[in-house]
Write the structure tokens for this entry.
Amino acid sequence: QGVLVPGLGTFAVVHEQVNITEEMYVVRRPVFQLDMDMSCLQELVFPTVMIPGDITIMPLDYWWLSQTNSLPPDVVRGCVEETILLYSFQLRDGQRPAFVFENIGILSCQDNVLCMQFHCSCITGLESRDTWVALLLT
């Protein structure tokens, strides 16, 4: 399943087959598909990530988020929307701040390349059997 963060992109977990020497591994790893206003991304390069069509994409659950911080869902939605808007304005203005997602990773820009770097703990939490393969792929 994937989660769409409106105005920013989609987080998902994909299964990927990997052949290493004579062994085949199937690992679960996180991916992020950027979906921002292209005017924000002038002069920036970002990796093209395609989420397979068989993965169900759900909208961000503002009600669930509101339960984790005791704020009303409409306040949470407003905070998320304003944060993404601020981030896109900063990118458009030539600033390159890092966007940190707790327990997931960091969306950062280095040398005009905007990419998602997942925390090792996020990757190992998804793939316990072939962790080192998933870490290498991600």
Summary: The helical segments are 62-69, 73-92, 120-126, 131-137.
